[in-house]
Amino acid sequence: MHLVGYRYRLRHAADLLASGGVVCHPTEAVWGLAARPGDARAVARILQIKKRPVEKGLLLVADSVDRVAPLLAALPSERRDEVLASWPGPVTWVLPDPTGLLPSWVRGDHQSVAVRVSDHPLTVALCGAIGSCLVSTSANPAGREPARTQREAQRYFGGLIDNYLPGATGNRTQPSQIRDALTGDILRPG
């Protein structure tokens, strides 16, 4: 994907995120709802829009390993090596967060957080434009199929979202695999 023509759209979406907005964007396989993880009000809006309980926690996407490096520190070196070998890419790892680096509205009832370093060019560019990881959860009401197109996302949410960042999903047919970083166990196949 060539992002030169997206500069204005990316800047606009980043400005909305910085001011507490919620942006819908394409990811590797499905569309996602994004907010800054430190913005409790924006994350609460996503949870309300999706009808998702805060206790479940949310996933973070990043544009680089550097953005999530503090979370990798709690892993034994061999586990960290396996995580790093899969990124950027379609594997989401549940990483321990024993010192509470992330707020409870991101972690939910867990002492861990699900993290993926994305290889989707638009998702990477959006993280870079905001200078942060993003909460990114599938664009669908709880119990419904994730939106695979912008049109499907707009049917679900209409004007409840501040911005729909146009673009295409990646070439994957399934949402990312989710694995436990401490054990390597697969929690959700990809």
What would the keywords be for this entry?
9 strands; 190 residues; DHBP synthase; 31% helix; alpha/beta
What this model shows, in words?
By secondary structure, the chain is of the alpha/beta class. The chain has one domain: Alpha-Beta Complex (DHBP synthase). It contains seven helices and nine strands. The protein has helices at 7-18, 40-50, 69-72, 77-86, 104-107, 121-130, 150-157; strands at 23-26, 31-35, 59-62, 91-96, 112-117, 134-138, 163-164, 177-180, 186-188. A hairpin with a 5-residue loop joins strand 8 and strand 9. The longest helix is centred in the first third of the chain and has 12 residues, at 7-18. The protein is globular and about 45 Å long. The mean pLDDT is 94.
Major beta sheet, specifics?
Answer: 9 strands, mixed
Element-by-element helix/strand order = HEEHEHHEHEHEHEEE
Rg calc: 15 Å
Tell me the strand percentage band.
15-25%
Query: pLDDT below 50 for ≥5 consecutive residues: which ranges?
Result: none
Read across the widest sheet, the strand sequence of neighbours is 7-1-2-6-3-5-4-8-9
Helical percentage: 25-40%
Tally of individual domains: 1
What is the third-level CATH name, the topology?
DHBP synthase
Q: Count of DSSP helices?
A: 7
Helix-strand category: alpha/beta
CATH class: Alpha Beta
Query: What is the general shape?
Result: globular
Number of DSSP strand runs: 9
Can you say what the CATH homologous superfamily is?
DHBP synthase
Give the terminus-to-terminus CA distance.
Answer: 23 Å
Average pLDDT level? 94
CATH architecture: Alpha-Beta Complex
